[in-house]
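Appendix B. Chain record.
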Amino acid sequence: MGVPDYILRMRRHVGHELLWLPSVSAVIRNDAGELLLGQRSDDGRWSVISGFVEPGEQPATAVVREVEEETGVRVEPVRLSSVVSHPHTYPNGDRCEYLNLGFHCRLISGFARVNDDESLAVRWFPMDALPELDAHARLVIGRALDPDEAAWYLPAGRSWDDLTVVG
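Structure tokens predicted for this chain:
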């Protein structure tokens, strides 16, 4: 749980310099239509449940693992809904560029709870009462809940800085 050892080892060599990392995010709704979010322990922000893809691990397996590790909830990926590269700077100055695969997931079982040290809180939110979310979380949620079943990606020649996310 938390930051994988191989990333900690890389950080010892590169300090706060930019790392390119594969990641996954999950958009999960319960039977009441509420959205599962976690409050991050590193910066206190609410966000979709996300995490690293481990070496040799398939992204769909990673999203199932990350959701269960962080929330105690079991999910099944329904579809890949977004693919986007986005920057993130952590409060300690570590800089990352994440290649993030967003998945729309189906709730299978479990009760949402803080299940590791990566979250301060885990909670189901009604769609009309979401907390403040960053641009990446809004994009992942919007694309996962879009009735268009095609996976969304930023068109060729465009960058994250070009993207305006409404929400």
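Further analysis of this model is presented in Appendix C.
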